[in-house]
Amino acid sequence: MTEAQRTALVVGCGYTGIRLAHRLRDAGLRVVGTSRSADRGREMLAAGIEVVAGDLRQAEILASLGELRPSVVAYCAPPQAADDPLAAILAATSNPSLEAFLYASSSSVYGDRGGAWVDENTAIAPDESGDPERYAAERIVVRAGMDGIPTRVCRITGIYGPGRMLRHLLESGQYSLIEAHDPWVNRIHVDDLVAGLIAACENGRAGAVYNMVDERPHRASEFANLAADLNRLPRPALISEAEARARYDAATLRRKLASKRVRCSRLREELGVRLKYPDYRAGLAASATQEQRAKQEQA
């Protein structure tokens, strides 16, 4: 089968998915993507990416996805609380040509580790201390792998890049830090994330888990303060824990207080990825430059 005959399906062409779709298209694959946004759909079509619109749980759409007989599936959609289509799409797209089914999970499945290091061998939390919806989705993918589908689970940390530098949250004052809590957090630049996802397709092991994270965990305040400085905005305010409990729902508060340092050894050593932005400082500075250049081109 020639490269031009291979098909990639990207489920969820959001901030990361659309960039992954572009990379796959540039590599010569036929790319089909799903998106709920009409504007994003037009962008995809203009870039030569075919669009599937509609409810992915519908039998006719599942059948059309199966007819693609994709070589690569990247499932980048977040879990749905009810009737999630993940299992149905896994079943529909399984075929002899399938080389890799990537599931974009989250490092939130590790829960709060009090700043301790975690890696892919660390047990994940099935209950509310972690991310139960992502945990449940990962179990579906693991079971599919046991049935012979070449799955990979990619646990992704906080994604940033051009257009995602906390600008809106900082401008609106919605982003805040909590007094006496400055947790360890982990991030990855979107360009490095896409490179990691491509490497997981090409070099990953069936059934394997890969942390998609850069090489420098940092305190939440470090990223937020640098993002504010680069955006020329006031640094985020400190609020009390009592105010935070009144402002945020329980899940959001757990996420803001969770502290862990995530290792990326498999990303580097097994997948062979050399990060363009190994730490947030370099990545944020580059993102700010790219945003400024884009504004000048539009002016």
Helix content: 40-55%
| DSSP summary: helix tally | 12
Structural class: alpha/beta
The backbone outline, from C-alpha atoms, is: globular
Mean pLDDT: 94
Order of helices and strands: EHEHEHEHEEHEEHEEEHEEHEHHEHH
Return residue spans where pLDDT drops below 50 for at least 5 consecutive residues: none
How far the N terminus sits from the C terminus, by CA atoms, comes to 46 Å
The overall strand count is: 15
Query: Could you tell me the radius of gyration in angstroms?
Result: 19 Å
Strand order of the largest sheet: 3-2-1-4-5-7-12
Percent of residues in beta strands? 15-25%
Please give the largest β-sheet: 7 strands, parallel
What does this structure look like?
By secondary structure, the chain is an alpha/beta fold. 41% of the residues lie in helices and 18% in strands. It has twelve helices and 15 strands. The chain has helices spanning 15-26, 38-46, 59-67, 86-93, 132-146, 167-172, 190-203, 220-230, 241-247, 250-257, 265-269, 280-298; strands at residues 7-11, 30-34, 50-52, 72-75, 100-106, 117-118, 151-156, 158-160, 176-178, 184-185, 187-189, 208-212, 218-219, 237-239, 261-262. The strands form five sheets. It has a seven-stranded parallel beta sheet, sandwiched between helices. Strands 6-15 form a two-stranded parallel ribbon. A two-stranded parallel ribbon has the order 8-11. The longest helix has 19 residues, at 280-298. 38% of the residues are buried. The model has no long low-confidence stretch (mean pLDDT 94).
